[in-house]
Amino acid sequence: MRENLTSSSDGEGLETGRCARRRRASPLPGNSVFKEWKSYANLHQFDTANAHIAEGLIWAGLCAAVLKRFLAHAAQRVGKGTAMSTRRVAMCAHHILHDVVTALLDGFGLLGPLRRGLTYLLENARRANVQRDRRTGRLRAGLTTVPAVK
Question: Which residue in 14, 26, 89, 117 has the most C-beta neighbors within 10 A?
Answer without folding.
Answer: 89
